[in-house]
Amino acid sequence: MINVGNTSINRIQALDDFNSAKNRAFFSRIQHFMNTDRDRLLSFHDVKEILKPKNQVYRGMQVVPIRLIVGSEGRYRDFNKAFLPRRNHLRARWMRVDEARLGDISLPAIQLYEIGGVYFVRDGNHRVSVARSQGIEQIDAEVTSLSSEISITPQMTSDELKAAVIDYEKKIFYEQTDFGELTGFYDLNFTMPGRYDVIYNHILVHKYYLNEKKEEEIPFSEALVSWYRNVYQPIALIIKEQWMALNFPGRSTGDLYVWIVKHWDFLKKKYGAYSLSEAARDFSIKYGQNRNLLFRIMAAAAGRIGKFFQK
Asked: pLDDT tens-digit profile of 190-209?
């Protein structure tokens, strides 16, 4: 009878714990309604896509600080940033885990991925949620680590992580190529990771074509300067003359350069000869935010004005 009574009491307490945790999640959502990313649990898949780890290592059993568990492999929509439950369908399983805690019943260790100094739940989301909601600071976990050059802080959002990766990629690109020293240009910026690798490949392709007319292999630095002056700068000028920044708010000149080159290549393969200026205008009209008649008139007028001053 005592066990039955304790079970009943524990169930009532677990229900009260779940409702309290869910209410805290609700108020947290209200508190962050102007910036929902601050309340959103990170997706392990999204983080992998941003960081692109090259290898992973099994670390075995460890004691992990719960505050460093910042995301989930598959349940990132069910819990908020503090691992509080956001949905009613979590109640039954959440309560069973909490009842086990209240009854001093041992549960299996959770499984985590570690990357950038923080952790993502592979298995055991409800156990993490219950533990964190009850103020427990550490948890036993089976850990697999993935390589990363970027450190992640517990409060970091996916956008902040993306920005950190871009900053890191820019630093490496400028250091390894001497791009700033060779060109005097330090504002080659992007809003998406992976673009500096694209630029590096563009320079290599440009170097290949330059070498076709040379008896000796030209140095990479010479090809870089030639690419900057004869490829990037003319396209950047077209972007400015056609006011493309107005049609792609929040995007950089570097972003537009990459897209225009790709679109230009597509148009040349489809139609044959196609001018770079027309390719930029076609891209802006088809994919820009302001794809309306007024903007088309403005873009066309900008193109004519640019041609007039080039005469």
From this structure: 999 999 999 999 999 999 99
